[in-house]
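Summary for the funding panel

The consortium committed to producing paired sequence-structure records for every protein in the target list. Below we show the first two records in order, beginning with the earlier of the two.
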Amino acid sequence: MKTRTHAADYYRRILSAQPHALKRLDPFAAIVKCHGGQEISNDSGPAGHWYYVIVGAVRRCLIRSDGRQQIVDLMLPRDFFFVSDSRREETIEAIAEETVLASYPGGRVELFAERDPQFARELREVAFQSLTRSREQLLILGGVTALEKVGSFLLSLDKRAFEASGQVELPVTRYDIAEYLAVSVETVCRAFTDLQHLGVITLAGKRTVKILNRGALEDRAGARLPDRRPEPMALSRTAA
C-alpha cells in the first residue's frame, strides 16, 4: 500500500494547532519529511538544530561494545530532540515511513533565549523532556523479566499519548522494541504472546495493542511510570 504524502502546508497547519515550548519560532521552522531509515543530518555545526516530531517516530542509536545497536532515545509526536555535529558517535534516524519534523535553527533558538527570559525557561523545559525520556528508559530497562520490560514499555507509550485511552499504537516494529529494551526480538514476541494468554493485553491490529487489565500490567511492570502528559494550563501558558 502506497503511503500518502501531504504537502508541507498540511503539516504546518498541524504544527500551528499543537501547543509546544518553541511556539514563537514556528514561523522560522522548516518542515522536514523523512522516510523510514533516513538519517537526520547532524552537519549543521555546533549550533545544531532543534527538531519537533509532528508525525512519525525517530530513534537515537549507539553501537554497543559487542557490536549490537542500542536505541537510547525514542522520539514520538510532540517530542523535541537536538542534533549537532558534536555528537558524531550517535545515529539519529526516522523509524516510521511517514515521519515529518519541524526544524528550528539552533543559533536562532539561542539568540531568542538570550533576549527573552520567558523563552529561555521554555527552552529549559524542552531540554528536560530528553532527561525525562532517559529516566523512563532506565526504569523500563531495570525490569528483571521480559514481561516487566515489555509491560513498562507499553505503559510508557500509553502515558506519552495526549490522552491515555488504553489502546496503544506501536510506532515501531518488534525489532525496534528489542533494540530499545536490549533483548532479543524473540524475547519481545514471546512476552507479547504471554501477556495475551494472561488476558492482560490483546492485539487489535498489527501495530495496535489494547490494554485489557491495566492494574495487572502495572503489577507485572514492577513500577508505575510517572505520567508525562502535559497539563492543559501549562500548555496554554506556553502557547500564549
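The next record, for a separate protein in the list, is shown here:
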Amino acid sequence: MTQFNESELTEAVVKSFDNTPNPRAKFLLQELVKSLHDYVSKTNLTFEEWDYAIDFLTRTGHKCTDTRQEFILLSDVLGVSMLVDAVNHREREGATETTVLGPFYVGEHKVTPHGTDISPHNLTGEKMYVASRVMDLKGKPLAGVPVDVWHADDDGLYDSQKPDYDSVGASARARFITDNEGRIAFRTILPCSYPIPTDGPVGEMIMQTKRHPMRPAHVHFLVNAKGYEPLITHVFIGGDKYLDSDVVFGVKDELVAKVEKRSDATTPDGKSVTAPWHLMTYEFHLKPGSGLAPKPLGTKAAEPA
C-alpha cells in the first residue's frame, strides 16, 4: 500500500496521470509534477511561503483584464517567455531573430495606408519615420504581407494603459500591407525606454527584489506571411542605456537598429516634417514554414472538444 509521504508521494501523483488520453498532455503534466515537487523538496518550502505564493498568483489573476495580462508579464520578467521563444526557434537559418510578444498586443490593428502618422495626437514626441522591408531568406521581396506594429509613446505608456483608451481608441499601433517590393513605411514618434507596470503583484516582486523595471525603447513588429513562420519581434533603438539589462530579457544584438537623427525638411516620402526627426530602417527575413500568429488580448481561448 502506497504511503503518501515525502519518499513516495511524487511517484504516486505522477502515476495518477498514467491514463491521460493525450500523450503530450500526459508528459507535460507528469514532468510538471516532478519539477514542482523537486522545488518544494529542495527549498524546504514552509507553509507561510506556500501561502504567500498562492496569494501572489491569486492577485496576479485578479489584475488581468481584456487589455492587461499580468501572467504574461510574470512570464516575461522570469525569463520564461524568452526561453519558450528560444526552444521554439532554435534554427533560424538566417531568418530575423524573434523575441517576446509582450502584454500589449490588444488587436485594434486596422489596415492603414503607407506613410500614415500612427501617433497623430502626440505633440511632444520627436517624429520618427520607419521604413521596413519584408523578404525571404534569399532576399526576394514578399508582397501582400500584413505587418502589425505597436509601441509606447514618449511617456512610456501604451495606448491600452491609458484611462481614456476605451473612448479615444488605438494609437501608436496599426497594420500595414507590404507593397510589391515588400516595403512598408509609416510616421510616428521616437519611443523611449519605459518601466513595466509596477502597480500589480509582478511590479511588487520586481521592486522588492531590487531589480529595475525598465525596458529599452523599441517598436513591436508581427509579420504574418502565408507560407512562412509568423515573426514576432522588436526593433530596439540603438544606444538605449537599458539594452544590456532589459527587465524581460528580450534584446538580441541583431534586433538593435541604428536610428539616425535627421534635420531634413522632408521625410523620404516627400512630406514635410519639423526638425529634428529620426529615421529607422530595418529588413525582416522570414523562414519558410507555417504556424499561427498569436491572438490579441481579450480573445477567448476555445474550449477543448
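Regarding this second record: The two ends are 36 Å apart (CA to CA). DSSP finds seven helices and eleven strands in the chain.
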